[in-house]
Amino acid sequence: MTASPPTPTDLAFDLAPIGLLVTRDRVIERCNRAFVEMFGYSRQQLLGQTTEMLYPSHAEYEDIGARGVRSMLAEGVHRDERIMIHRNRELFWCAVSGHPVDPAHPYACAIWAFEDMRPRRPVRMALTPREREISALIVAGWTSKQIAKNLNLSPRTVETYRLRLMRKLEARTVGELISRVLGLC
């Protein structure tokens, strides 16, 4: 018995130029070629696994997951830019968008798009998970008060992290800090 040719829908999913992912309860159900290539695993290694394997740490998996649920419940979609981890342990920036099938149950089944930002935004420094999280929000233009509220921290704690990041990356201004985090200088 011969296999039937792929449908146009299957071809569009599999050959899309960005990484596409279907998850159920944060478990990988389906992914396309671009996603497989982006993370360095085979499709068989990804299917049936939780997405936690794609995050630099368990804390980042939990924190970003909690933010994702909040934004999907409030807005019906979640978008962010975050640092992810390749199979070879290389960290890289990724733009991520997720849309739940049922807005009332965001992670029951969700469709995700991943854009690899390595060509324009290399990761050039070793940061802790919290520093990565805060630096991503600074790059997104969030204020210390907004970051504090979102991460359940005090604004003073966020300011301490911002100063630590500036020292670590030898940045004199927030603009310079953003440029260094983005790998522009």
Report on the architecture of this protein.
It is a single chain. The protein has 8 helices and 5 strands. The termini are far apart. 42% of the residues lie in helices and 19% in strands. The chain is α+β, with helices and mostly antiparallel strands and 185 residues long. It is globular and about 65 Å long. Strands 2-1-5-4-3 form a 5-stranded antiparallel β-sheet. The longest helix has 18 residues, at 58-75. The mean pLDDT is 90.
Detail the topology: elements first, then pairings:
Blueprint: H1 8-15, E1 19-24, E2 27-31, H2 33-39, H3 43-46, H4 58-75, E3 78-85, E4 91-100, E5 110-116, H5 129-139, H6 144-151, H7 155-168, H8 174-181
Antiparallel strand pairs: 1-2, 1-5, 3-4, 4-5
List keywords for this structure.
single chain, 185 residues, alpha+beta, Beta-Lactamase, Arc Repressor Mutant, subunit A, 2 domains, five-stranded antiparallel β-sheet, 42% helix, DNA binding
Shape: globular
Terminal Cα span: 58 Å
Share in β-strands? 15-25%
Main β sheet profile: 5 strands, antiparallel
Q: Say what the CATH topology of the largest domain is.
A: Beta-Lactamase
Order of helices and strands: HEEHHHEEEHHHH
The average pLDDT is 90
Structural class: alpha+beta
Helix content: 40-55%
The CATH architecture of the largest domain can be given as 2-Layer Sandwich
- The CATH C-level name of the largest domain is Alpha Beta
Q: Largest beta sheet: what is the strand line-up?
A: 2-1-5-4-3
CATH H level, superfamily name of the largest domain: PAS domain
Give the tally of β-strands: 5
Domain PAS: 32-57
GO biological process, one term: regulation of DNA-templated transcription
Domain HTH luxR-type: 119-185
Organism: Pigmentiphaga humi
